[in-house]
Amino acid sequence: MGSAHAVTITYGAAGSESPSFAGATVLDFNAVPLGAVGSYNFGDGTLTGDGAVVSGSVVNRYAAPAGDSTRYLTIAYASPVGSATLAFNAPENYFGLYWGSIDSYNSISFELNGQVIASFTGTQLPSPIQANGDQQSSLSNRYVNFFFGTQFFDEVVLHTTNYAFESDNIAYADPPAAVPEPGSLLTFLSALMGTCAWSRLRRRKNPAQ
Fold first, then answer.
1. How many Å apart are CA 166 and CA 100, to the nearest integer?
2. Ranges of the chain whose pLDDT falls below 70
3. N or C, fewer C-beta in 10 Å, the chain?
4. What sign does the CA torsion over 88, 194, 118, 100 have?
5. Chain segment 116-165, per-residue pLDDT in tens
């Protein structure tokens, strides 16, 4: 078990699909071909894994994040269980995404040099988020910002154990990414307890990683 890391989580306004950090680079998927991603180079890194770029909704497979009429990323695509990894060419300390129909079986983990440094399931996001899979509520469709301060990550893994993990307008920033002023913060201390087992499970499912 490694040391714990402080992660500051903030949310965009209800209905907002954009990152709260103005200096971030945004990956919006609008120029990405529809269908399974396989491996996609987005300039500052690569996206690989079980994701697909889709639009609209398919019952019991994927649902567009509330209000999103553009292309977005869904995981998994060919089966209910899977993950997609964003590997960055240089370390980052801010990550954001418009997370659609947040559910208890969705999770996101952050890695540095192959080691998980922080991990969150949908139910571990702070209030007012409700990880109940509602496809329209602003409490389960929200722009989520992760600020790492002086800690960096070089990979982000989006994982689900059921259909589906939907996201759009994925954003990231090179250091330094300024953390919002106190008073609007929801700061969580994310220890590595439990994440090591999850990481081993992911690697067993994906032995090539």
1. 5
2. 1-5, 175-209
3. N
4. positive
5. 999 999 999 999 999 999 999 999 999 999 999 999 999 999 999 999 99
Structural domain contains residue 181: no
Domain presence at residue 115: yes
Based on the structure, what is the number of domains in the chain? 1
Decide if 182 is inside a domain. no
Q: Where are the alpha helices (DSSP H) in 6-152?
A: none
The pLDDT of residue 5 is: 63
Q: What angle do CA 68, 99, 114 make, to 5 degrees?
A: 135
The dihedral through the CA atoms of 103, 45, 204, 7 has a sign that is negative
Domain span at 23: 5-175+188-205
Dist. CA 66–CA 28, nearest whole Å: 15
In CATH, what number is assigned to the domain containing residue 19? 2.60.120
